[in-house]
Amino acid sequence: MHPNIEDIIQQHNIILFDAVCVICNGWARFLIKYDKKIQFKLVSAQSPLGVALLEHYQMSTEHYTTMLVIQDGTLYTESTALLKVLQHIGFPFNLMGAGYFVPRFIRDFLYRGVALNRYQLFGKTDYCLIPSSENKRHFLENAIRES
Q: 72 with 8: CB under 8 angstroms?
């Protein structure tokens, strides 16, 4: 039996990403490479668990406008989500925490500029990032299955 959404968000730090977005897939590969301690678990927004998380936070399940980061049960979006992750990955990425000095409305404006035009700027991929035997520990669905 799988834990419920409340249990999941309390037990795991989660990054929900658009699996058909080229830049989002690149971000997931970046995290697999640099999140050595596996502090964050990846979830595709298009997966059943991703849809359940989006519904839980009353977010659109059809139009993904931001990466979502759930840390210690708290939801972060847009530029704050990005900064939350970078500050926990370690040096030199944690230096990006200086981005908090930029007012949020400016950071989010810039974030939205890329996020809302990401398909036009970077395209879509025909395949989702598939967990391999080497990186499956980075994906939440695998962690739930194994517990």
A: no
